[in-house]
Amino acid sequence: MAEIAKEKGIPIEIGTFENWEPAERNFNLVVFGQSFHWVNPAIALPKIHSLLSTGGHLALMWNRLFPTDPTHGDFAEIYRDYMDPGSPLIDGSSIGIVETDGNTDRLIDSITASGFTVEEHTYPRNDHYSAQHWLDLVFTYSNHLILAEDKAAQLRVRLAERIGSRGVTVGGDTLLILATRSQQSG
Fold first, then answer.
1. What's this model's pTM, rounded to 2 decimal places?
2. Is residue 11 part of a domain?
3. What is the CATH number of the domain that holds 49?
4. What are the tens digits of pLDDT across the range 24-41?
């Protein structure tokens, strides 16, 4: 993404959010799309609060999709051969590929305690993906990206065989947690 932004003339700064230095800049909006789980909230939330102007927004978004045809269980039979035994793709503790780890209430409590007013919005999703589109999507997730190249190729072939030409029907929602910075510090 950084390379694409650079090619378009957009200034970029590379580093972890926790170590990034804002150089006394303030912002009206900070956005995390499918990525807030990668930062330490104990460090990130106070930093975000200090970055935002009063009334500024923090937007956290996740697509929480789950396959309905083929089902999560249909895919779990294949994932057992490639993922760790405790993976939510195998053990049924997850409804799908991406979720917020069942910690939405705890996350909202942390954001509120950091000096934000929080709104939670969900937008229902029912979609159909071609096999290729579904595979392209799931192979962007970290639990797929960390697989050895040969294992990832095998998994992709087996999933494609299971999906066949019918594609994948999914349900779920998109979650938006919209937090507004209050005047007082969190």
1. 0.79
2. yes
3. 3.40.50.150
4. 999 999 999 988 988 999
Q: Specify the pLDDT at position 94.
A: 52
Alpha-carbon distance values, 18 to 14, 22, 42, 57 (Å)? 12, 10, 10, 18
- Residues 120, 175: contact at Cβ < 8 Å? yes
21 pLDDT more than 80: yes
Provide the residue range defining the domain that includes 59. 2-18+27-181
Q: pLDDT averaged over the chain?
A: 89
Helix (H) or strand (E) segment spanning residue 150: helix 149-163
End-to-end CA distance of the chain: 32
Are the CB atoms for 61 and 176 separated by under 8 Å?
Answer: yes
Token pair listed for 52: 């935002």
Distance CA 137, CA 110 (A): 30
Domain-embedded: residue 162: yes
